[in-house]
Design brief:
about 180 residues; alpha+beta; five-stranded antiparallel beta sheet; about 15% strand; two-stranded antiparallel sheet
Length: about 180
């Protein structure tokens, strides 16, 4: 899964995909309603790929959490983000052993809200399909390389170089300079 171009903008609901960069910021497309809006350099933006969650052992990137949630839900939406905090904690605890003290209820709401947006927009499903295509393309490339190595190269007769003959300049007799006299 690749969350490189997915961001959250403070003050704007939902998630956004970066479409292009402008002089003063970005143009983003909402994953909820596909509307394009500008995001300025003064707006507070969080890239999902930079976010991680506290676990009992170490921090886990949000990408990994979402991959585990996606496997757990078999591609369906997870629990609603407006559910009781105890239900959100119990649901996530089945999937990821997170730190109960350092992860706040507001964090869990965002986590589930964003996950459900990604699932509804088929973003995760499309990411998996692209990953499978890339793996298949890499296998095909490796197969082509090994086929090229196993087939013997054909011998090609070397072409003889064509040499153009330079026209020979007629040798002119050497004239003695005027005024030179021979003794004798």
């Amino acid at each position: 899964m690749n969350l490189k171009s997915i961001i959250s903008v403070t003050g704007k609901p939902g998630l956004y995909k970066i479409v292009s960069q402008t002089k003063n910021g970005f143009v983003v497309e909402s994953l909820v309603d596909n509307k394009k809006v500008p995001v300025y350099a003064s707006d507070k933006v969080s890239a999902l790929e930079d976010i991680s969650i506290y676990t009992t052992t170490e921090d886990m990137p949000l990408i990994e959490v979402y991959a585990k949630l996606y496997e757990s839900t078999k591609g369906a939406e997870a629990i609603d983000h407006n559910a009781k905090p105890e239900e959100l904690r119990a649901f996530l605890a089945k999937v990821v052993p997170f730190d109960q003290e350092r992860v706040y209820n507001s964090d869990l709401k965002k986590l589930f809200l964003w996950f459900n947006i990604l699932v509804k927009s088929d973003f995760i499903k499309n990411q998996e399909a692209e990953a499978k295509k890339e793996v298949a393309a890499q296998k095909d490339d490796k197969k082509k390389v090994t086929e090229k190595k196993t087939t013997a190269p054909k011998k090609v007769a070397a072409a003889k170089p064509i040499v153009a003959k330079k026209p020979s300049a007629a040798k002119a007799p050497i004239k003695k300079a005027a005024g030179s006299k021979k003794n004798g």
